[in-house]
Design goal:
mainly beta; elongated; about 40% strand; about 290 residues; about 10% helix; single chain
């Protein structure tokens, strides 16, 4: 057997944000060490149910079942097993692959959405309550990946939420545009194409920048099946949800914008065919005839 002091050294190190949403782990649990004289590290159950056994053997006597997210103290490692204390007087062995050791904790200061993957447009898997404490599995530039209900979920970092408010004029500076169209019933991809030609990007940008924000959500426009990801000259990106009809409306960050105003006339209303014609093969993919 050997002590697992080195585990603390490889724990993920994250900077505490200005909002104190991340609590860094101690090198070891000092309160437990002062009380018992034993050095142990905080650990959390990652699976739905984890068996605490009397010995480091799968056939050893089962002492109890530990639920997902339950905290324990880890004192030793032997092969694929950790010796843990569930409380001061209850100890046993658990399989190491189902335990997260000495992680930083994400602490919610208000109700916080958790997503299926790293995008605020991803399906929401939970709405976290205030003051929840959840182990952080990994971190990206804009998101924390947390352990939640036997799986992983993504929560946006506070600094990622502090982005400059979108204005249509930004679309005049796009350097790439990727259009993804999916079938909302089956989820299958119907069209996927990236535009990098500066001339075509200029047309797309001019068309979409000629827009005004609507007072509220536009009723009757079918959103969710055509997503346009644009990259600006400064390296930032934005995701526009295009209405798949003749509305000439896109939605971004929960706000709707009516675009192509210069092409409207009293004789004939504009359609989004003008925009979609800039993406090769799109009309065929959508079952429309090319014009």
């Amino acid at each position: 057997m050997k002590r697992i002091f080195t585990l603390a050294l490889i724990a993920m190190l994250l900077c505490t944000s200005a909002h104190a949403l991340v609590v860094e782990p101690e090198e070891y649990n000092t309160a437990f060490a002062e009380k018992t004289g034993l050095y142990a590290y905080d650990g959390y159950v990652l699976c739905d149910s984890l068996t605490l056994r009397a010995k480091p053997d799968i056939n050893s006597k089962s002492l109890r079942s530990l639920s997902h997210g339950q905290k324990m103290l880890i004192s030793m490692r032997e092969g694929e097993w950790y010796h843990v204390y569930v409380s001061e007087h209850v100890e046993g062995w658990v399989k190491s692959e189902y335990v997260l050791v000495n992680p930083p904790l994400y602490v919610t200061e208000a109700e916080t959405p958790a997503y299926a993957y790293g995008s605020r447009y991803a399906p929401r898997v939970a709405l976290l309550s205030k003051n929840e404490k959840l182990p952080i599995i990994h971190t990206t530039e804009d998101y924390y990946i947390i352990s939640l209900r036997g799986a992983s979920a993504w929560v946006e970092k506070p600094e990622a939420r502090k982005v400059k408010e979108f204005t249509p004029s930004q679309l005049l500076t796009i350097t790439s545009a990727v259009l993804l169209c999916t079938d909302t019933q089956s989820g299958t991809t119907k069209y996927h194409h990236e535009v990098i030609d500066p001339a075509v990007l200029g047309e797309i940008g001019n068309l979409l920048a000629d827009a005004e924000v609507m007072d509220g959500s536009v009723a009757g426009c079918p959103f969710g099946s055509a997503l346009l990801t644009v990259t600006f000259a400064d390296g930032t990106t934005a995701l526009l949800d295009l209405a798949m009809d003749d509305c000439c409306v896109y939605r971004i960050d929960g706000r709707d914008y009516s675009y192509a105003r210069s092409q409207w006339s009293s004789e004939e209303a504009n359609t989004n065919d003008v925009l979609f014609s800039l993406f090769p093969g799109l009309k065929n993919a959508l079952g429309r005839e090319d014009q």
